[in-house]
Amino acid sequence: MTARLAAEFLGTFVLVFGGVGTALFAANFPDPENNTLGVGFLGVALAFGLTVVVGSYAMGPISGGHFNPAVTLGVAAAGRFAWRDTGGYLLAQFAGGLVGSSALAAILSGTDGAFAAAHEGGFASNGYGELSPGGYGIGSAMLVETILTAVFLFVIIGATAKIAAPAMAGLAIGLTLTLIHLVSIPVTNTSVNPARSLAAAVYGGGEWLGQVWLFFVFPVLGALIAGFAYKALFGPTAAEG
């Protein structure tokens, strides 16, 4: 179990450091008004997807490569993970995410004004209403986070089933997360992962931290819906991992 928890910690660290780091350092470079070198929404979406691809192949054989509390709870609901082990996984994921965002904060402090600007801009946190990139309200945020997390879990459970091609699972899961970001960055800045949301909101502070509850509740709801529904829809053979 120690090795599994260490793998979840490291995988979540990489996800937050790579994905949130891309949003903070490279999405708009040198600045939003003169974005001549920035990667934009597409680059951020790819960054999050790539973190899952590399994490899945590097850490997946050790821990299963969840890196996300919603994933852990969803696969437990599907009967693919022991409920008794969920607490340890969740603690490792939240810790890895917070260390990842803390490392980003330390790097931002290396140049004048960068940390203050990132904090003022929300530190790539998730939000709704005035804090949504596109101004989408709370109902839109609830729906998109629930639906897309459910889609994510359906892909994860299917791609890692015994009847699937295991060598391709990491790629399929990472590309799905990229697609999810392409859909929902304008709506909520994309969570589908409570550990990622808390890691950023701690440094966004204020209103951002006040809205983080939604990005705990609705990703978990979507994951549980998918987890409980998968075996009922596709049968026990398809759900075996």
TrEMBL record:
The keyword Transport applies. Keywords: Cell membrane, Membrane, Transmembrane, Transmembrane helix, Transport. Its main location: membrane. Signal peptide: none annotated. Gene3D superfamilies: Glycerol uptake facilitator protein. SUPFAM superfamilies: Aquaporin-like. The chain crosses the membrane at residues 6-27, 39-60, 90-116, 136-157, 169-188, 208-230. NCBIfam families: PRK05420.1. This is Aquaporin Z. The lineage of its organism: Bacteria, Bacillati, Actinomycetota, Actinomycetes, Micrococcales. The gene is aqpZ.
